Amino acid sequence: MSTTELPASPEFKANHAELMDGVYRWQRHIYDLTRKYYLLGRDRLIDGLEVPQDGTVLELGCGTGRNIILAARRYPDARFFGLDISAEMLETAGKAIDREGLSGRVTLARGDATDFDAEALYGIERFDRVFVSYSLSMIPGWEKTVSAALAALSANGSLHIVDFGRQEGLPGWFRTLLRGWLKKFHVTPRESLREVLESESRRTGATFRFRTLYRGYAWLAMIKIAS
């Protein structure tokens, strides 16, 4: 599967793209096998998308394509679009999507989730659903991703997020080990995620829902734009 890529620019954050390619050049081959044990709540997010008939769905930080493939099966009438800053991950995602026979319904593009032009990348400006699964914890300036995602929503659209929480209900030793391990992959749980989402909801007049999963291990959130 071919992917669209915008020309490099100062806003593209080429250094972060290079970092992610370095991290996942080899990890991408075993990513889905290993991550299924600790990226909890992803399938719950997909089930909660409730994509409308003939809807459009954008995933920011689509990685290996695992989530888009599952969502495309779950919502067979929808069209899907994936964005990632890593060319290595997009290569893996493209091959997986082709194997599943979904290339006609899924379009991938390389870009920065904090600042992207959906019209230039996909030929579509607004989406019924946007979701971000365990990517905000890897994106520098992740707050801008939230704003960009909301700006890309159509009327009655919704943004869905799952990511690491504060692990406040888990033993201290577990939190220490987990965060130490995540740091090796440049992953940092976003302590202020809930506050940022609440602030963005108020700013846009949107409805906000937030759930704590597995004793704080993960957070699941939704922001729905008012009609």
TrEMBL record:
<dbReference type="GO" id="GO:0008168">
    <property type="term" value="F:methyltransferase activity"/>
</dbReference>
<keyword id="KW-0489">Methyltransferase</keyword>
<dbReference type="InterPro" id="IPR041698">
    <property type="entry name" value="Methyltransf_25"/>
</dbReference>
<dbReference type="GO" id="GO:0032259">
    <property type="term" value="P:methylation"/>
</dbReference>
<protein>
    <submittedName>
        <fullName>Methyltransferase</fullName>
    </submittedName>
</protein>
<dbReference type="InterPro" id="IPR050723">
    <property type="entry name" value="CFA/CMAS"/>
</dbReference>
<feature type="domain" description="Methyltransferase">
    <location>
        <begin position="57"/>
        <end position="157"/>
    </location>
</feature>
<keyword id="KW-0808">Transferase</keyword>
<dbReference type="InterPro" id="IPR029063">
    <property type="entry name" value="SAM-dependent_MTases_sf"/>
</dbReference>
<dbReference type="Pfam" id="PF13649">
    <property type="entry name" value="Methyltransf_25"/>
</dbReference>
